[in-house]
């Protein structure tokens, strides 16, 4: 990576999983970056406040600013795809160059953003935040979250299970998925029936890039 590269700006808050995806990718690609932390709400330092809405019209994190190209992105998938296109010329986070390799990465990426993430998000909502107790909704989303765990478990059990896609290195599929499944404890979702997921969480969580991301994001500059 060029020594003249200006640090990218990762906009985040310290609690949700999605900003950590981008921090992990930046660490893995050795791209310099700084973190700016925002709060919930519509105040001056809030995600729904006027300053942040100029960066991300959706008022959600992550958002990513690249002073080297002038590109501004939001939504974790868009941010990560940008990093892969611009800064992963050596395919460090890609499992291979064949069409099947690319499709496999797309499959597990979209499975996270369409299934694992939304189901776990709804479990968290109805367990921790919904104003009135709704056991039926919670049970529904718990069932679906466990269903997605079963799909991931099957994939991990189909090979050595260190990473979602077979290979010697973490791929973007792991980058997308790890921060969500890592929060299974907060969601009060047991992994007793999913030994492959437990093994995978330990393997990915022990990577220096992942450890660095989880250390750096909470220490970002408060806005």
From TrEMBL:
Q: Where is the GST C-terminal domain?
A: 98-223
Source domain of life is Eukaryota
Q: Which Pfam families match?
A: GST_C, GST_N
Outline the extent of the GST N-terminal domain: 6-91
Q: Which family does it belong to?
A: Belongs to the GST superfamily.
Q: What is this protein's record name? A: Glutathione S-transferase
The species is Elasticomyces elasticus
